[in-house]
Amino acid sequence: MRLYSPFFTFLLTFAWSLILLANCEEQQIPEEKLLVLTVATKNTDGFRRFLRSAKHFNYTVKVLGRDQKWNGGDYMSAPGGGQKVRLLKTALEEMKNDDQIILFIDSYDVVFASGPKELLKKFRQAKHKVVFSSESLIWPDRHLEDKYPHVREGNRFLNSGGFVGQLSNIKEMLVNWTGKDDDSDQLFFTKIYTDPAKRKSINITLDSRCRLFQNLFGSLDDVVLKFEDGRVRARNVLYDTLPVIIHGNGPTKLQINYLGNYIPNTWTFEKGCTMCHEDLLPLSALKQESEYPLVLIGVFILQPTPFVTVFFERLLKLQYPKDRIKLFIYNKEAHHEKHVTSFLMDHESLYREAKVIGPEEVDEAEARNLAFDTCRKDKDCSYFFNIDAEVVLKNENTLKILIEQNLPVVAPMVTRVGRLWTNFWGALSEEGYYARSEDYVDIVQRQRVGVWNVPYVSSVFLLKASLLQSELDDYDLFDSANLDPDMAFCQHIRNTGVFMYVTNMEIFGRILSTDNYQTGHLHNDLWQIFENPMDWEERYIHENYSHIMKDKLIETPCPDVYWFPVFSDIACKHIVEEMENFGQWSGGGNKDTRIQGGYENVPTIDIHMTQINYKDEWQKFLQEYITPITEKMYPGYYTRAQFELAFVVRYRPDEQPYLRPHHDASTFTINIALNEVGLDYQGGGCRFLRYNCSIQAPRKGWALMHPGRLTHYHEGLPTTAGTRYIAVSFVDP
Ligand SMILES: *[C@@H]1O[C@H](CO)[C@@H](O)[C@H](O)[C@H]1NC(C)=O
Ligand SMILES: *[C@@H]1O[C@H](CO)[C@@H](O)[C@H](O)[C@H]1NC(C)=O
Ligand SMILES: *[C@@H]1O[C@H](CO)[C@@H](O)[C@H](O)[C@H]1NC(C)=O
Ligand SMILES: *[C@@H]1O[C@H](CO)[C@@H](O)[C@H](O)[C@H]1NC(C)=O
Ligand SMILES: *[C@@H]1O[C@H](CO)[C@@H](O)[C@H](O)[C@H]1NC(C)=O
User: Fold this and answer.
1) What's residue 597's pLDDT?
2) Considering only CA atoms, which of 307, 522, 300, 283 is closest in space to residue 394?
3) Is 260 part of a structural domain of the chain?
4) What is the pLDDT of residues 52-71, one digit of tens each?
């Protein structure tokens, strides 16, 4: 005989569930009963991060020890922390409501990942009056290992960085504390826990499976970010739990910084960066420019660097009242002295002050120390803005944006074009060098946009001067026995617990390659077409070149002759000056040892590109900027822009004023005017005899493109005054 029918079983189960459910409701601990206590003698960046996460979840937090002197030892190394126990004990003595729940937690390296409700639920489920956080490593006394009870699953050892419990039980636990401030709190609690009688009477357990507390030390590989509907948590994949509190204990400060970039809602897929819009310092609120904070800009030229003149042009364009800027320029390269001098000669008076330090005086580290110290000692100095000469700051508002972001140290992200190379590191290797964080590529490519707490920034960053009076008051921040100055500096900052950020909220600019930069020429930047093509283009290609197709800027002055802008004024000027500086103009005779056969049929006064070692660069230029137009205008013809002859010609009335009619030894010819008719010379131009068609008003920087043989028999018209320069290339001879 069957006692129950399946249906009856179902009913029974259902009824039980209801009873259990009701029970749960009954036992739920009201959130008002929870009080978070933490000790923070200093208002560190980590502490502010903790408070932010607590506020996000509406935790009630009481801070102990504010502004007291910390005697509890160095949290990075030796045991200590006794001061925390003393402060807690005193605070609890005043509290009378015995069924209050106390969460005692570190704060400099802690973030909440969830709210009071979940915390209390998990506490209740632990079925003990006091629950300590756990870890897999025993500390500080390994000899106590045998005394620890075994656990079925999870961490076996106690960590005192976080515990939650009923007030009366915690009071009982603290009753015998008489330790010194630098005694180990962890050892104190460990001894209570490992005493079976005390463990039982106080009713203590460990959160072995990290349901409440995740200590990161020893568990880094087990913790991953978990993005879920507008919030971010950490998941412990070993125990499949979602801890409520994340603690970067011991040497895991950088990992908590990384996790804190997301948890609990710092950055989410749904909302992006939430902290980026908090605590801003809007400069627009200032009524007058004279109220702008004073900034010391440290400019560092540390190696031969391309486009230094452009760097100074940009510095000048930086949007900020110059009267509120002091300049500190360190130049290590004799080669760049002329650039610094010329910038200061023209613009020094605009700035509040300018100071130049040369290499004879100090080395890089000392120069950087000195620059910081200049700001440190200047009571008006509010910010130090560091910018190395290889930084191309395209965003003229960078300085304002960084100030408004209101962070201790913040770098605008700058990247090397087409590379993953930037001025920040997302993580640090064990040896203290570069390591790639999981989000590095997304940040570099701006798939994730925000403000990121990172272990290393360089080249360009803003620092609050107040730090130089406090955490960073050591003079020799850039000195180290074994690290480069940039790394020494970042290590120093990390050790003080100051947060460094990089922002990719906007596009700020890029960073030049200084590799292979030769300084043997007059205008070395002309040679940068391979190493820094984007900067080369911005400097040397005509501003309207990029839209000549769209805006139909290509003219046809004579049949099959095309005319379009290609070089900037600066390009023309630099090429001419480079040639004049080289100075070995050919004699204009028929005998020419520079060419094959040694005989020139139609000689000009010229210098070949090969003579100034510019062949490869010139060919690259033709390929990049001429080829697309050739193929457009002469459809069906494909060129790799090969040439044997490319040169700059000089026409002068008293030297060689014109060139008699001839064919070029080319499939097509490129003839670029390098200076300005009416201004630099009179006359000049080019005539195509077959069509009786002349171009008599050549335009500086514009290229003429025409077929070389057969149809386009042509002559150079006489230059009647001044000097005319053209760059001629016989393409595909
Ligand atoms: C926190 O409290 C505020 C106001 O009392 C409320 O609007 C908000 O939803 C609360 N947040 C959470 C996470 O409970
Ligand atoms: C510990 O406290 C829980 C209630 O929180 C209770 O059920 C349990 O029996 C206690 N354990 C001991 C050993 O007293
Ligand atoms: C505190 O000291 C008393 C007296 O030695 C002892 O009986 C008690 O167990 C101690 N309590 C704790 C929590 O250590
Ligand atoms: C580029 O084109 C614009 C519009 O036609 C013109 O105003 C400007 O002067 C051109 N730039 C140069 C350098 O010629
Ligand atoms: C060539 O053109 C010029 C003016 O453009 C004109 O004066 C001359 O007569 C022309 N010559 C021939 C041979 O057509």
Assistant:
1) 85
2) 307
3) yes
4) 999 999 999 999 998 777 77
